[in-house]
Amino acid sequence: MPRIIGVIPARYASSRFPGKPLADILGKPMIRWVYENAMSSKLINDVYVATDDERIFNTVKNFGGNVIMTPSEIPTGTDRIAYAVRNIDADIIVNIQGDEPLISGDMIDSAIEPFLKEEDNDIDISTLAVKITDVETLFNPNVVKVVFDKKNFALYFSRSPIPFCRDAQRRDEWLKLGVYYKHIGIYVYKRNSLFKFVNLKTSKLEELEKLEQLRAIENGMRIKVVITDKDTIGVDTSSDIENVVSILKQKNEFLK
What we know:
The chain is an alpha/beta fold. It is 30% helix and 22% strand.
């Protein structure tokens, strides 16, 4: 079995929600929810938080987690992960978003599994997608959509609804005439693919859509898309915390 580690990049600075990783969710900071859910994965050997902030560093240390301090000038979460793992023994690295406290170990394992199949040895990166079932999500530019080929390799990611439904006369007809998928932002990398990716120059499509995974596609890297029936809620603003709390209470997670 390959050695697999999960890394959660976490910055304190955020234009819309400063201090987001430390936001309280039912008595625990959000970063702890993400960390503990990642630890529930059956395939990951170790989980690390990669941060540039002492407050986050100390919080993770205090609840017993692994944490690595990284320079503040590192531009992206993926670059932060590459820096953090440069001296860590790992064959496969999982980029787990620090603002998705509802991510589950099962979802993480689903994203990892393609790398454990011999017939899929041409994969550079794998990720998750879930079927879109409502029009608001489909047309929300903050929700990234993905289309993929018959072998589930990504063709394109976009903030726009893709594919375009030419025959639809109204928005509510799009989901009747086509099938659409929301991208869930977890990425699993082969070690060499991670370092290849961070050494590539920013691409034109990436700049336009503000989606770094398009850099991989533009440079011929292969992204496997695993379909899941589970969704997550990304926390972008303080109001998103209320939605997360509501869902956790429904699951009785607040009793843990």
